[in-house]
Protein 1
Amino acid sequence: MSVSSSVAVVPVLEKPAARRRSYAPAEVAPRLPRPRALLCDLDGTLIDSMPTLAEIASEVMESTYGTPRASARELYLGTCGVPFAAQLDEIFPGDPRNAGASARFEAAKPARCGAIQMPAGTQRALERLRASGVRIVVSSNNGVENVAAFTRNARFSFDLALGFGGGLAKGRPHFDLVARQFDLAPDEMLFVGDSLHDGEIAHQAGVPFAAVATTFSPERFKLRFPHAPVLRRFAALPELFQ
C-alpha cells in the first residue's frame, strides 16, 4: 500500500503455542457489527512495508542529523502514522534540514517499497469481506502517487483508494469523503491500522477502530484503546464480526 489525488518493529516474540492461540476468535474479542465500509491503512497494515520504511528513515536521519541508526529507527516507529515530514517536525522541531530530509525519504520509497504485495491471507480476508457486501477502502498517509501505484499493482480491486495530498489526509478528511461517497454514518465504518496515531484519529472522528499489532505491541494498543480489538495479523479480521 488508477487513483487521482481528488480521491485518491520490533516484533513481539512469543512461544509458538501462544502465537497460535492469538489467531483464534476468542483472542480478538470484542466482536463488532459488520461495517458497511472498511478503511485500511496501507503501510504496516495491508503490506509489510514498515521494516523497509524504517530502514530508509534511519539512513536519512543518520546522514542528515547524525542520529545513530538504532535510535533513528526507534524515533521513526514511535511517531509513525503521519507523513514523514510531520514526523521530522516532531523529532527535530524547527530544523531547517527537515524539508530536504523528507524529500530524500519520499524519493527513496517507490524503488524500495513499490514491489511489496499484500500477503495471500490479507487478500483472502478482503475478498471474504467484499463478498459479504463490505466496501473496501485504502486510507493512507502515503503520497497519492504511491497509493495509486499500489492499487494498480494489487491483485484486488478496491472501491476507493485515498492517500496524502490534494487536500486529503488520513483521518477526518478521508472519513468524511468515504461517508459522502457511500452515504454512511461514522459508526457504519471501521478503520484498521497499525499505529497508535491510527487509533487516535479514528477515536476523534467517532469511527470504530481495530488494531493490527505489527508495529506496536498488543499491550500498547490495549493500554491506549482498551475497548478496541487487537489482531496480530490482518487475515484474522473477518473473525471479528458478528
Note: Residues 49 and 113 are 6 Å apart (CA to CA).
Protein 2
Amino acid sequence: MLTVTIIIISVIFVFGLRIADQYQRAVVFRLGKYRATRGPGLYWIIPLLEWQQMLDIRTMTADVERQEAITKDNVPVKINAVVWYRVFDPKSAVLEVRSVDNAVIQLAMTTLRTGIGQYTLDDVLRAQQEVSNTIGQRLDSVTKPWGVKVERVEMKDVEIPESMQRSIAMEAEALREKRARLIKATAELEASEQLRRASEIIMQNPAGLELRRMQMITEVGAEQNTMTIVMMPSEFVSMARGIADGMLAGRAAGNA
C-alpha cells in the first residue's frame, strides 16, 4: 500500500513539473482563479487542479498593414508601419485582454488612421519621426493597462496620389530655382561691394591704378594670344580730358 502511494505521489509530482525558458513566463490558474506567475526555470503545478498560459516577454514585431487615411489638409494617403512591443506584466496581458498580440495590431491600425488625420501632408512627409513618436505614445497609453509596453513605431512607406507627387516635384523644383537665384544675387551683391571698396582705395591712391594695370597685363600675357596692348600714362588721359573739356567750353562760348 505504501509503495502504491509513493508511486502515485511520484507520478503526480512528475506530471506537475514545468520548465519556462528565460524569455517566458507562465500565468498559473487554480480552479479558474489566478494563482501566480511562474518562471523562468523549473517550477511545479498541481495536475488537474492548476493549468497555465505561457507568454513570451521578448520584444515582438508586428506589421501594420497599409491603411488609408486623410491628412489634416484633406489629402488621401496610404501608410503602413511597424510596431515593436513587449509584455512587461504577464498577469495583465492574460486577464485584461484576449489575444494580446491581435489587440495590439488592431489598436495600431486604428490609431495610425486617426493619428495621421491630425497632421498635414508636409508634416507626415518631413517629420515622420515626430509623427511616429506621437502615435507610439498614444498606443503605449492604451496598452499599459494590458501589461504591454509599446517601445517604438516606425512608418515604412507613405504613398500619396500621383497628382500630388507631381505638385510636390514642381514645388521642390521651384524652391531649388529660387535658392539658386538668391545665391547668385548674393554673390553679385558681394562682388559689387568689393569692387566699390576697391575703387575707393584706388581713388585715394592713384599709384594703385598703375599697379592694377600692370597686374592686368601680366594676366593677359599669361594667355597664348596675339593681343597687342598699348600702355598710356594716366597723365595723358587727364591731359586729353582737360583738352576735350576746354574745346567743349569754347564751342559753348562761341554759340552763345
Note: The CA atoms of residues 48 and 143 lie 33 Å apart.
